[in-house]
Amino acid sequence: MGPVINQGAWDSITHYLLVGREESRLVAGGEADNTSGYFIAPAVFADVDPQARIAQEEIFGPITAIIRAQNFDHALEIANSTEYGLTGAVYSASRKNLEKARENFYCGNLYLNRKCTGAMVGAHPFGGFNMSGTDSKAGGRDYLLLFTQGKAISEKPLRAARPLKKKIKRPKKKPKNRKKAAKKRKARKQKKAAGAKKKTKAKKLRKRR
After folding, report:
1. I need a surface site. Which of 59, 114, 135, 168 has the fewest CB within 10 A?
2. What is the pTM of this model?
3. Is residue 197 part of a domain?
4. What is the tens place of the pLDDT at every residue in 143-195?
5. Is the residue at 190 inside a domain?
6. pLDDT per position as a tens digit, 45-88
């Protein structure tokens, strides 16, 4: 016999014991007593249909449903057929099956070759998804976000609010060799003057014609 927390829990679990007896075969345990506390002996049911209530609903009590599977893939299919997804466990000596479970077993906490209870507080993030939670892990970094309030802010800047672009005055580079720079300036002026003379000559010729 094991204790449960209160009368409400005792009533709920003993109700599922009756449901289990109707849906499948009780092979061990199942006794209950509330004369001086709330006690229930862990119950094991065999030949359980994958869609039976004791296989599909969260009981939160000492009830185990044994379901036959044709092979490992079928076992994963059965495990994923429920809308809950808190924890799952796989025992196998096959690395291929363990990797397949790692990829395809849909639950918040997956245990390989170890028991599926007793997550270490402060060392093992814990949390389920689907109907078993939001998948935020207690003991993980993402759990801290549940104690914060996120705010998204967007702004379309107005024309008047746009900052004016200031022209940056860059200092003129001083030529390293002043004599060469002077020669270049003189050559540019001469070239410009020669071009102007050619234009005036061309204008005079056109007038004569």
Report:
1. 168
2. 0.62
3. no
4. 777 788 888 999 888 876 566 666 667 766 665 677 777 777 888 888 777 77
5. no
6. 999 999 999 999 999 999 999 999 999 999 999 999 999 888 89
Q: Is 194 within the bounds of a domain?
A: no
Q: Are residues 86 and 120 in the same domain?
A: yes
Burial of 64 (0-12, 13-18, 19+ CB in 10 A): middle
The alpha carbon of 17 is separated from its chain's Cα centroid by a whole number of angstroms, namely 37
